[in-house]
């Protein structure tokens, strides 16, 4: 099931208060992705994003996705506290209503040379377009199953980084990406970019779990980074975006 966020001209997959499962532009609009040449700390990043979106003639509610970088993986409680802080700006922008958050997100932790504080890597927003090609951004997902239990209780192969454990995590996360794209009526054949985040070797499962199912049709970008919560080991996100640039 997807919901419409009319103020932003996009649909989204309802998930949790900190982010949605993904977004897709409504007809007559497309998603533009903007990557920062250098990571920008959270508060400064929000300010720069607001300036960029408004200069494009768009309302702040058109903000639909972002990619963050954090210094290190959070505990369950630490992650919740970070998210409570993060959504305050979205509430000020009229995006988050206190319950539902339509914005898709990934938030990962570089293993080498991480930022000193949570920072923006990229963001996306909707804009009017004559292009009839659809566009979407699927939020990052690690190998934790949805639910209210702790991460330890709902993580696939919890603390298992053996080759078999990693293989099962990769297959599970790829399946999540497929289900989320499917909510919008899309699949791997539609994705223009796929990113993965792990510090573990997954070459042994790459061909069968990713390439054969079409997940690497446009290549695969591997970021040597951890998912945002301690003991999660593998994360992915994907998108179909025709307009991308670096600032």
* Mean pLDDT across residues: 96
CATH class: Alpha Beta
- The second-level CATH architecture is 2-Layer Sandwich
Percentage of residues in strands? 25-35%
**What name does the CATH topology carry?**
60s Ribosomal Protein L30, Chain: A
- Kindly report the name of the CATH homologous superfamily: RutC-like
Radius of gyration over C-alpha positions, nearest whole angstrom:
17 Å
Instruction: Please describe the biggest sheet, giving its number of strands, its sense, and whether it closes into a barrel.
Output: 7 strands, mixed
Structure notes:
This protein is α+β, with helices and mostly antiparallel strands. The chain has a single domain, classed as 60s Ribosomal Protein L30, Chain: A (2-Layer Sandwich), CATH 3.30.1330. It has 5 helices and 13 strands. Helix 5 links the parallel strand 9 (193-197) and strand 10 (221-223). Helix 4 (163-183) packs parallel to helix 5.
Task: State the main characteristics.
26% helix, 247 residues, 13 strands, 60s Ribosomal Protein L30, Chain: A, 5 helices, globular, seven-stranded mixed beta sheet
């Amino acid at each position: 099931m997807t919901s419409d966020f009319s103020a932003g001209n996009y649909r989204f997959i309802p998930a949790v208060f900190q982010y949605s499962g993904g977004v897709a532009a409504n007809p007559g609009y497309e998603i533009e992705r903007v990557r920062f040449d250098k990571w920008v700390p959270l508060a400064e990043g929000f300010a720069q994003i607001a300036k960029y979106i408004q200069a494009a003639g768009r309302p702040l509610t058109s903000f639909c996705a972002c990619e963050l970088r954090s210094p290190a993986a959070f505990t369950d409680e630490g992650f919740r506290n970070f998210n409570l802080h993060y959504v305050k700006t979205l509430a000020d922008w009229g995006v988050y209503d206190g319950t539902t958050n339509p914005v898709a997100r990934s938030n990962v932790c570089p293993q080498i040379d991480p930022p000193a504080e949570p920072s923006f890597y990229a963001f996306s927003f909707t804009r009017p377009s004559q292009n009839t090609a659809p566009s979407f951004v699927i939020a990052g997902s690690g190998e934790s199953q949805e639910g209210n239990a702790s991460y330890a209780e709902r993580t696939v192969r919890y603390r298992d980084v053996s080759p078999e454990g990693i293989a099962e995590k990769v297959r599970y996360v790829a399946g999540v990406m497929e289900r989320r794209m499917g909510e919008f009526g899309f699949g791997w054949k539609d994705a223009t970019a796929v990113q993965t985040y792990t510090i573990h070797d997954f070459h042994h499962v790459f061909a069968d779990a990713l390439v054969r199912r079409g997940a690497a049709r446009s290549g695969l970008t591997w970021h040597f980074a951890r998912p945002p919560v301690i003991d999660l080991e593998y994360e992915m996100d994907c998108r179909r975006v025709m307009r991308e640039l670096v600032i």
